[in-house]
Amino acid sequence: MNGDGRLTDVLDPEEKAQDECGVFGVWAPGENVASLTYFGIYALQHRGQESAGIAASNGKQILVYKDMGLVSQVFNEDHLRPLAGHIAVGHVRYATTGRSAWRNAQPTLGPTPYGTIALAHNGNLVNTQELMESVREKSGEDLTGELGRGSSTDTAVMTALLGCLDEYGSLEEAAMGVLPTLRGAFSLAFMDETTLYAARDPYGFRPLVLGRLASGWVVASETAALDIVGATYVREIEPGELLAIDESGVRSQRFADATPRGCIFEYVYLARPDTTIAGRSVNAARNEMGMVLAREHPVDADIVIATPDSGTPAAIGYAQESGIPFAQGLVKNAYVGRTFIQPTQTMRQLGIRLKLNPLREVIEGKRLVVVDDSIVRGNTQRALVRMLRAAGAAEIHVRISSPPVTWPCYFGIDFATRAELIASGLTIEQIRASIEADSLGFISEEGMIAATTVPEHRLCTACFTGKYPLPVDHARAAAGLDPLSEDS
Ligand code: SF4
């Protein structure tokens, strides 16, 4: 562990886009809500591996337990037992706003005039400074809750704002007043002592779904988390919608008109393959992307292999469409990732091999098609190509099931700065030379969009196209300020 309490990620050679969080909420009298939430956030672990937390209410008080680490590292039976009650929210975090540190872990907890709030957030706000000014206007220097404890996240600011306004009669009313002032991406699960709430920004950048249990209701970032806790999928929480769930049932209110622009990168890489978004199976979308890729960038080769696991559905699609057999050429060590153990220099030099190991008997002498979902900085692919050549590959043809990532994301995905994105400064031929592949092909924007079956005007594709759903002030963003101009 680093001196500041951070987990180290230097063992993780994957330089993929990092998703920012997963949220889960349950209202279910008579159920063990803490255990359900544990398994819910376990199912969402891929969305964030830096911290995990659960808040639970017994109707009178809310208890929170959270810490740095994976869900399985943070919780055991002794931690879950005191989290008794009939409502819970859970969270897994990858840091986007605010450093990776204990004080920024979620759910955030804070006082309100009507009780206590515990809040879990997936996304990234772009007017945090403006919101912080509103908090200071109300609270002065006397900050309470997570801000008072030193948190620096947009989530802590949002939580404070929901708690510092005294003109409303309930948290539900306060949410209807505050949610329209938040700008950017937010899929929220939050609660007071008696009610579970869920809300999604008007663009619906990040997924959020409602599920039904025999004895209650569940909200979760992905449908896969509903499946895993035995909940039945009911529907997506609409962009611009606030749900309140208590003993009266589910109440829906609209705090803004919906202008849906779901993140296409959820289909490419971020979401689990066994999740469904906007009626489209993520696995089916990735298979289709592989098929399109095979049509757009055919090549003579002996086998198709995937960069596991995220490249596998597209590699299967490429193999089906091209008729070239699919084979497992790389074995993933699934349990290497973020760890509290500092690696030695020798281990650092092993790089990608800590995570992926080639199967020499499959690869040797073969012309390979290697399918991956995206290229961000290019370092992983270069190391992979070198490793496959060392294992005896005769030719290496890299195929990528998303177009080149050329723009930063301001809506919660941590790619890299624009200068670090390999595709923002190089042509495709230069990228091919840089990663030392024999050939390189990216799926077209049209092909990727068509594979989702979602109309283009309902998707955000900004990191590939530069067409942001909201006006973006890149200079402010580069200066570390809110990326959107205040008057946009
Ligand atoms: S910029 Fe890219 S990663 Fe960010 S929300 Fe849009 S499509 Fe998703």
UniProtKB/TrEMBL annotation:
Residues 21-248 form the Glutamine amidotransferase type-2 domain. One of its GO terms (biological process) is 'de novo' IMP biosynthetic process. Its EC number is 2.4.2.14. Binds 1 Mg(2+) ion per subunit. Its cofactor is Mg(2+); [4Fe-4S] cluster. It catalyses: 5-phospho-beta-D-ribosylamine + L-glutamate + diphosphate = 5-phospho-alpha-D-ribose 1-diphosphate + L-glutamine + H2O. Keywords: 4Fe-4S, Glutamine amidotransferase, Glycosyltransferase, Iron, Iron-sulfur, Magnesium, Metal-binding, Purine biosynthesis, Transferase. InterPro entries: GATase_2_dom, Ntn_hydrolases_N, PRTase-like, PRTase_dom, PurF, PurF_N. In the C-terminal section; belongs to the purine/pyrimidine phosphoribosyltransferase family. Catalyzes the formation of phosphoribosylamine from phosphoribosylpyrophosphate (PRPP) and glutamine. This is Amidophosphoribosyltransferase. It comes from Flaviflexus salsibiostraticola.
